Amino acid sequence: MSQPRPPLYAPNGVVATSQPLAAAAGLAALRRGGTAVDAALAAAITLTVVQPGSNDIGGDLFALVWDGDRLHGLNGSGRSPAALDRAAVLAAAGAGTEPVAALGGGQASGPAMPARGWLPVTVPGAPAGWHDLHERFGRLPFAELFADAIGYAEHGYPVSPYVARAWDLAVRVHAGLAGPEFAEWPRVFTVDGGRAPRVGERWRNPGAAEALRRIAGSGAEDFYRGRIAAALHAYSVRTGGLLSGDDLAAHRSSWVAPLRVGYRDHEVWELPPNGQGVAALLALAILDGVDPAGMPPAEWAHWQIEAVKLGFADTHAYVTDPDLMRVSGADLLDPAYVAGRRALVGARAALPVPGEPGRGGTVYLCAADGAGMMVSLIQSTYLSFGSHVVLPGYGFGLQDRGLAFRLDPAHPDAVGPAKRPFHTIIPGFLTRGGEPVGPFGVMGGHMQPQGHVQLISATVDRGLDPQAALDLPRWYWHAGRAVQVESAMVDGPGGRDLVAGLRGRGHEVTVPPDAAVFGHGQAIWRGPGGYVAGSEPRTDGTAVGH
């Protein structure tokens, strides 16, 4: 991890993203008089070009928007094809192609959705999400927000270090894929069909420029009911996919009411399911009943890890398409239920199981403007480069969100037609006494709720600024009693005592060879003189302001 850096202070507006060129695109929108939503969208659209392995035009989007008075939520995730069901998956892919435990949380292994190809492809929600956010909160012309992204796609940009490393790994993954649906990926996303672009090497994607022009000029209509939709339908039919033009035409974003829990004298907000934000909220609600003052660091870390385990156990047991959930997010956050879950935390590391509540590859960015509007936005194609299915002529890949579906027909998230799957990507927002503090997020699959818990605790319990909170070494739990910690945690002051304390409580602590598992975050807090922001030190991220 790089050396700690100071936070950014800015009086009028901030954009924080995982890639500097995208942050600059967002800042340019602010300087032209755009809102925080305009800035967030300019950055998000640019990210599809400059960080393509983590997100793309063919991905999904979620957002929280503080409009100056209250918080709004947008669920921009897409549904499975109408032709997708368990029989279709088993017939096309066979059983046992992926371990269910890949989702995290300690699920039993068994038959699962394949990770690549057409079967895990769901309808992309990002283009519609861009349009819907702009329609409600934007000020600049919609097409203007695409200018930087189109320019970089058409004329090229030098690839940044973190993006180059991740891209190289994706090329190795693709080498093991066979089938006509994978043929376009190396033509678009490799150099001479064989390698990833190197650090600083200029990379172009003229097909993506064409797709972005059509989305910009049609308000995303072309993607769902126009020429791009027709091309997707035809390519799906030609190469064995289930995605149809009717699936695309039926897509709609959903405006939703965010969920919240109190944490000390603050409130933490997440989107309701089908995302996993409820895991972070349940963990924080459990921890809100515990006073860390005077605790040894290992004991407080133990409480955080055990609370996260319980949050994940319930999330993986119940979260699916919100229209089909057996319990609601509010049920999982009921104070009496939370108290019962808190009582399960003991002195030793446990194996989490779901309770019985009452029945009732990602990029993250944030932006704020001078009028007080703030945006927390996250978009993704899930695994690196998603499905590795790329639409010829339009230069973008499709997400593989259907990988989250289960093949167990009794599970709430069982694979089925026209259904939103469990989602890992979650934007967060923090308030204090109902007044906005700001947007935050930590991307990285199963790490995301854990990152939210650690960032909020660092902010509220320790009073750290956003950059200092993001700089802190992190821990990561995936399954069982295994916990990974960053080397900086072990080597820092008191680190060896902390690790020894965790091991003494039954946690199986290891240090992974790199920091990729610990996620990447951004945060912006509102202060008396403007904004203070932090950006992820583990990647190419930056925060810029004016």
UniProtKB/TrEMBL annotation:
Gene3D superfamilies: 1.10.246.130, 3.60.20.40. Pfam families: G_glu_transpept. It comes from the Bacteria. PANTHER family: GAMMA-GLUTAMYLTRANSPEPTIDASE (AFU_ORTHOLOGUE AFUA_4G13580). This is Gamma-glutamyltransferase family protein. The lineage of its organism: Bacteria, Bacillati, Actinomycetota, Actinomycetes, Micromonosporales.
